[in-house]
């Protein structure tokens, strides 16, 4: 499946996709975007690498991973990382929900602050919901990559 | 009646929960005490008995707040009837558990046995004291569950499995009938409290009648009681339940569990008693009494004989409660006590015989009194009581039944004269088998029966105590003739009796009993019974064979119906499983989709949903129409695509068109999501398809048509659902609210995202958990399959 054109395009496009994904995640609160879309977009970038270069390349060359395999049938140890990702995501979302309790708020209460006079940005909205969104992002990335890797290996 | 003190809350709570706590501790105790766990369990039962006894003479409700904010509480009710059942469960429990110490010597599975027995006792105490319909139901089913474990004690034996399953099926499903009855009661009165119903019986009955639910409630509760108390034709589980170790039979099937059904009738008697009640339960009880007594004559095994006899005597109690007159309640109350004493004693005697003589076959036994003199004495008192021979205890309660039946017949006339006739007829058979059981100890020893050893003391003391109790009750009647009464005992029976009649009923100065001193109809009926019984006894062998010939006819056996139904259902479910789940994904999908579509459409049809009017033109611009048309073309292309690859590719046309539609309908967030997800699905699909054969299977024309029709139905269902569900949008949209609050409260301009992470963050939390779960399940499914777990 990998022609020279495909490889070259992938090399160029993947970073752009990833940056876009992160941008979508960060701007999600005010503009189209958010954790879910950002997550899915990130996964498409990975999928592209996977299709063009194969999972081994992703695992060994790009991420320098050589992990023990947990489940025999799944040939790639990287699946463990993916699992970690969605576990972490759930934890982040839960902690983000719990923090307001410390300040006497309800579970999952969100707040936001507006920072003025920043260099370059000028004015910036910082919403605590971003932490929660980050959790969503990681869950989506981890879960979809797990499915992708497992189904792909099949 | 003079006011009585309120029960002590802590004692009642302890009595119900102590057995459960003790049951949980049994494995630990067993490690320390070994076989002496029996005495630990007996001590627990004794403690319960003490606690019940400490509440003797009290009357009222004990309530503990449980979830106060919702007004939910745990409450228990103490009155004569609940005390009686409490005494039976704990008192007989003490004896049975002591007896088990001897009987279960060297048996396997003892921790399980004692834990289940204690749990059973706790459930039974719960049934007795529950003051709430739901609590009653829960404890009720707990007795079924624990008895399931006990009946199936020898879990490797096919016959035990069959017996346990049978009793479970019958008693648990009977309980479900009862639950429906309870829910109807609740629906009508708005109360779950039994105490409320007992305090306003007339009001409740009136309300039930007005709602037209009186007969259904009566019937449903009756089915529950009949299943538990082994009334015809649900009596069939009781003889099979004799697979259990004998102490269990004695405990569950003579003194406690089977009494739960009778208890239920007694409990609801004040509320439901009426003409219909009498018709239902007098007939049911008398039929059971007679049929089971006849079957007992046909029994070849001593425990089988006792099992049928139990069903028969329960029939007597049910019939007693069935008669509307005050005598009816008196009969039931008194016979519960008598039956528990003589029947538990006889079961324990049967256990001794089986244990020491090594056989339970009636024809192989005889002349046991030489070796077992004390046991013979106990049996004489108990069996003569069971036969209803004066002056033994069963006689007095049977007299009461005869009296009640006679009175009912004299009152109603006509066919009602069958009541006393059937009562006498059934009692003749009762007399016959009781004497047959007694004769095991007399006459000649059959060849092949060796010297029988005396049982250990732990096995002899409990039946002896029960026999003495039965003898004391009998003596009470003799003394009563001369004007001496056991005041406390009479008072207690009066209390029980009072629980089974309306609060303001006249008890004629309380209960007392004595040997009849002049000729009454009831005394004459007793005399006829005994004379007929004695005359028929020489022909016992012939009767025995006759009954067995009769029960060989399949259509006359309730068991045959049960077996046909249960095994038929098994075969049926095998067939269904093979048809519906034949291992082909296509079949699974067909059935699942067809079922969902059928249920949904049927739901709409049943609730009379009308399709809302919708205008195509509304909000339709030319670009949107174009995009949707392309989508339709894509959809058609999918269905005629020649290969998987082209099918998936054309499917994605559909997806992308939907995304474009979102853009045109100004929903950029949705469009973005749709685009990205569509791309990703496409990639995953292609990855998978790489490994699949590139052609479709050659399905037949019939299958194609079926699948086509199914997909059309599914499509129509989804279409209708969307129409119906969007039509329910409220006029003042919730969107406005979100728009107004998003920026000031969420601090974000993207309303969709603000809703997701601020307003409905908890939802999102659940959703991401589901996503994570899905990934885990994919992982597990694939891994499990590869491990070859196909056994």
From TrEMBL, chain A:
InterPro entries: CPA3_antiporter_subunitB (IPR050622), MnhB (IPR007182). Its main location: membrane. Pfam families: MnhB. It is found in: Cell membrane. GO terms for cellular component: plasma membrane. Signal peptide: none annotated. It is a multi-pass membrane protein. The chain crosses the membrane at residues 12-29, 35-58, 84-109, 129-151. Residues 5-146 form the Na+/H+ antiporter MnhB subunit-related protein domain. Keywords: Cell membrane, Membrane, Transmembrane, Transmembrane helix. PANTHER family: NA(+)/H(+) ANTIPORTER SUBUNIT B, NA(+)_H(+) ANTIPORTER SUBUNIT B. This is Sodium:proton antiporter.
TrEMBL record, chain B:
Residues 130-412 form the NADH:quinone oxidoreductase/Mrp antiporter transmembrane domain. The keyword GTP-binding does not apply. Residues 67-114 form the NADH-Ubiquinone oxidoreductase (complex I) chain 5 N-terminal domain. It comes from the Archaea. Residues 705-782 form the MrpA C-terminal/MbhE domain. It is found in: Cell membrane. Residues 629-693 form the MrpA C-terminal/MbhD domain. The keyword Ion transport applies. GO terms for biological process: monoatomic ion transport. Keywords: Antiport, Cell membrane, Ion transport, Membrane, Transmembrane, Transmembrane helix, Transport. GO terms for cellular component: plasma membrane. The chain crosses the membrane at residues 12-30, 37-56, 76-101, 113-131, 167-188, 208-227, 277-298, 305-324, 336-354, 374-396, 416-443, 464-486, 522-540, 588-607, 619-641, 648-665, 671-689, 709-728, 768-784. GO terms for molecular function: antiporter activity. Its main location: membrane. It is a multi-pass membrane protein. This is DUF4040 domain-containing protein. It comes from Halorussus limi.
